[in-house]
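Following up on my earlier thread - several people asked me to post the actual chain instead of describing it. Fair enough. Here it is, all 184 residues.
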Amino acid sequence: MLSDIERKYGTPRELVMTFPMNPKEFQILESSMRDGRDSDVTMFIFKGDKIIVIAKPFYPEGLYRAPSGGIRPEENLEQTAKREAYEETGTEIELEKYILKIRVSFVCDREKAEWTSHIFTARYISGELKPIDTHEIEKVALMSLDEISSLKPRLLQQNSGGLAYRAALTEATITEILSIKKGA
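Reply from S.P.:
Thanks for posting it. Predicted structure:
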């Protein structure tokens, strides 16, 4: 199935990363993996020249990141991306390019959990920018690439391996997007 996605959206650049997690955070990650999930789709959704971003209920005011969601065992990447985009942002999207595949190891003491993030650029098609899954998402906003990039220090201040990973993922994605734009 992944080969079909790559034929349709391109072959991504692959990265490998490792991040430490505290025991509580690691337990939450392991709990989310019990149903067989071991990967997510992250979308950098363009609406004009801005990116649609989300804030979780526990984020400090003004902290946002790209929408993402775990891939259910019965779904493919495309189905997950469209479902998660709608649930988290209220929008219908069209995937454009599969730009990164990041294999990450989260470690806590002597334990390790392996995860893969599949990162796509996408285009906004329709819908009102508002979270549908209000338990999971508190706010939806639009930000420029520079504004998103400027959030890295705030993500890192949260003392969270997951958010440190999101900061690194975001930085790698913005670098990839700018490289693609420069080559176009």
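The first strand starts at residue 13 and ends at 20. That should answer part of your original question.
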